[in-house]
Write a structure and sequence with these properties.
Layout lengths: L1 H11 L15 H13 L5 E5 L7 H13 L3 E5 L3 H7 L3 E5 L2 E6 L1 H6 L1 H8 L1
Parallel strand pairs: 1-2
Antiparallel strand pairs: 3-4
Length: 121
Amino acid sequence: ERGERVAEVLDLCGLTPLRDAYAAALPVGQRRLVELARALADRPRLLLLDEPTSGLDAAQTARLGSVVRALDTTVLLVEHDMGFVMDVCDRIVVLDLGRVLATGTPAQVRDDPVVRAAYLG
C-alpha cells in the first residue's frame, strides 16, 4: 500500500519522471513539489503551507497551484502572493497585525473596503 501511495502522490505532483532523482539536485520549484509530496504521503487531514510560492517563478507557481487545487485535503495557506491565494482558495481569512479584517470568498475579500484600505492605503 505504501508503494501505491508514493506512486499516487508522485503522479499528483508531476514528479513520476523524477522518482529516482536526488531532491537536492532538483530546481527549487521541483524541490517545493517534493516537499509537498512528502507531506501528502501520510494523507494529512490538514496541510499547513507557509509561503509555498516564495522563490518560485510564474510557471512553478502555476504548477504548485494546480497541485494544491487538486488536493482533497484542508489547506491552511499563509501566503503574500495574492494572485496565487485568489486562484487556489475557496475561503480566505485576511489578517492585519494578527487581527482578522475579513473572511469570505476570494471575490468578497477582494471587494472588501476594509481590506482595500489596509492593503492599498
